[in-house]
Amino acid sequence: MELKQISQTFMENGKIDTVLKDISLHVEKGEFVSIIGPSGCGKSTLFHIIGGLVAPSHGEVWIDGKEVTGQKGLISYMPQTHALFPWRTIEENVILAQEVAGIPAKQSIAQAREWLAKVGLAGYEKAYPHVLSGGMQQRAAFLRALLSPQEFMCLDEPFAALDALTRMDMQRWLLSIWEQNKRSVLFVTHSIEEALFLSDRIYLLSDKPTTIIQEIEVPFPRPRREEVLSEPMFQTLKQKIYATMKRVHV
Ligand SMILES: Nc1ncnc2c1ncn2[C@@H]1O[C@H](COP(=O)(O)OP(=O)(O)OP(=O)(O)O)[C@@H](O)[C@H]1O
Ligand SMILES: [Mg+2]
After folding, report:
1. In which band, very low, low, confident or very high, does the pLDDT at 138 lie, cut at 50, 70 and 90?
2. Which end of the chain is more exposed for a tag (fewer CB within 10 A), N or C?
């Protein structure tokens, strides 16, 4: 997936509001890339552009070597709010993208049940979302994105609403699933630690009008384990990113 010189302006109370300004970035096949940026800088807007829900004011979206600006249905997307449908059971929610893609329910339900068990949701296949805790709902929403047929996934702050311990569990869990699947991922987070723990590369974004201020290669080998969090290099990188983000946020 590649973004070429994406800019986005909105009309706000009769004034032009430039949100994204000349954003070019790429995610290679099987790569895990994170975006860190201040609140309101346009991260979700960028995902809406990639997903074809919003037409950019300028620039192009490329997937698999083709220009696909404005085309829907090409990516798997986990929005910032989990957006499980309350009237569908957990397994019906998980197979939604496959249903839209015309994959027979019998096949996708069997696969969904297998995965629900792997993520600790066995027994909840036929439950409705309101019965599940926040963390369980996030896992179900994540499975829906993971099992959708598109190879490229956009995850918008999937763990933001979780408490610190559940969040760490989910990060470990996501890492192990991703290391088995190697899907291409673009991941939005406010947590520097989370981005360093999970990613191959990180883009740091400025405040509006938003540009890319830095691109960071994360040097830790895979498979990664939690121990990496206490390595001196991890702490150094974390502090560097923190200092950069603090500078742009004043
Ligand atoms: N359809 C729209 N019309 C007008 N302004 C919009 C529209 N969509 C987004 N914006 C503006 O674009 C800016 C970026 O919003 P966006 O939701 O993309 O930020 P974000 O980086 O995802 O923030 P957060 O970290 O809080 O989720 C905001 O100022 C928002 O008000
Ligand atoms: Mg957002």
Report:
1. confident
2. C
Q: Which CATH code, of 3.40.50.1820, 3.40.50.2300, 1.10.760.10, 3.40.50.300, is assigned to 2-75+152-248?
A: 3.40.50.300
81 lines ligand 1 (CB under 6 A): no
Atom of ligand 1 nearest to the CA of 11: 4
CB 38 within 8 A of CB 87: no
Half-sphere exposure of 229 (CA within 13 A, CB side): 12
Residue owning tokens 């994105």: 145
Neighbour-count burial for 194-209, b at 16+ CB within 10 Å, e otherwise: bbbbbbbbbbbbbbbb
Q: What is the mean pLDDT of residues 29-34?
A: 96
Q: Residue 110 pairs with which residues in a beta bridge? A: none
* Ligand 1 mean position, distance from CA 143 (Å): 26
Of ligand 1's listed atoms, the one at least distance from the Cα of 47 is 18
Where exactly does CATH 3.40.50.300 map onto the chain? 2-75+152-248
Q: Which amino acid is at 170?
A: M
